[in-house]
C-alpha cells in the first residue's frame, strides 16, 4: 500500500503540492490527474525520493520509501531519458543491474519484452536509430524490467500511435493482474476511464475529486443525453434542467441536471417528428474533469 500523508512541497514561496493525502491499495491501478502544472510530476518525484518533501510523509507498506528503495519502484518519467548512442540491450541491462538484477536474468526479460512489443530486432540497435514511439516502448521496458512492486507512469501513452497505445495498455493491464500497484498520470481521460478503478484529480496541488470512478460519476449527478432526430433541436437549449448543449451533425448532446429531466425532454420532442436516437448516458470523466478542474481538454 502506498500512503501519501499530508504532503506539501514548496518551491520558494510557490506551493506545488498542498497537504495531499492519498492511500493506494496494493494491486490497484490508480489515475492521478490534473491540469498542466497541478503538481503531478512533483508528487511522483517525491515518491521516488528525487526531491525532498517540505512537509508530510510517504510510505510503502508502512516503511519509508524513496531513493534507497528504488528497486521496489519502476518509473516512466514524462521527459524520456535514454542514452541515444547506447544499444538497447546494453542500456536496459545496465539500468536493470542498477536495480539489483542479474545480467543473465535482465537479458532474458528484455528478449521477452521485445517480443511482446513486436520488436525483437531492436535488441542490438542504438536508441537514436528508433522512432520516438519505439524509444518510448524501450523506456517502458526500462521501468518494468526489474519487476517493481510499485510502478509510476507519467503520461505513458503520449506520442504513441493507436496500435502501440493498445500494446502498452495490454502490458500495463497484465502487470496489474500480476499484482503490481500502478499509479499513472494522463491527460487522456478515456485511457483513465478504461484502466483505473480509482483516481484523484488535483488542482493547484490539492485534491478536488478523489475516489472510485463509478462513485465519482454517480456523485457528479449530471447526465448526458444523446439525441438524434430529423428536425431542429435548437429549442432544447432553453428547457429547464438543460445545463448545456453541444450540437452534432443530425443531433445534439445535452448535459442535464438529473435523469428526470430526460423524461420532460422526451415529452417535448415526441410531437415534433421522428427521433432516431435518445439515450441517457453517464457523464464522461472528461466532463467531470472540465467542470472540476476548469480546464479545457477538448
Ligand atoms: N524545480 C522546480 N522549481 C520551481 N518550481 C517548480 C519546480 N518543479 C515544479 N515546479 C512548479 O510546481 C508546479 C507543479 O509542477 P508539476 O511539474 O508537478 O506539474 P504537473 O501536474 O506534472 O504538470 P504537467 O501536466 O504540465 O506535466 C508548477 O507550477 C511548476 O512550475
Automatic annotation (TrEMBL):
Q: Which InterPro entries match?
A: AAA+_ATPase, ABC_transporter-like_ATP-bd, ABC_transporter-like_CS, ABC_transporter_ATP-binding, DrrA1/2-like_C, P-loop_NTPase
Q: Which keywords does this chain's UniProt record carry?
A: ATP-binding, Nucleotide-binding, Transport
CDD domains xref list:
ABC_putative_ATPase (cd03269)
Q: Which PROSITE patterns match?
A: ABC_TRANSPORTER_1 (PS00211), ABC_TRANSPORTER_2 (PS50893)
Protein name stated in the entry: ABC transporter ATP-binding protein
What domain of life does the native source organism fall in?
Answer: Bacteria
Query: Which family is annotated?
Result: Belongs to the ABC transporter superfamily.
> Taking every annotated instance into account, which residue ranges of this chain make up the domain ABC transporter?
2-229
A GO MF term = ATP binding
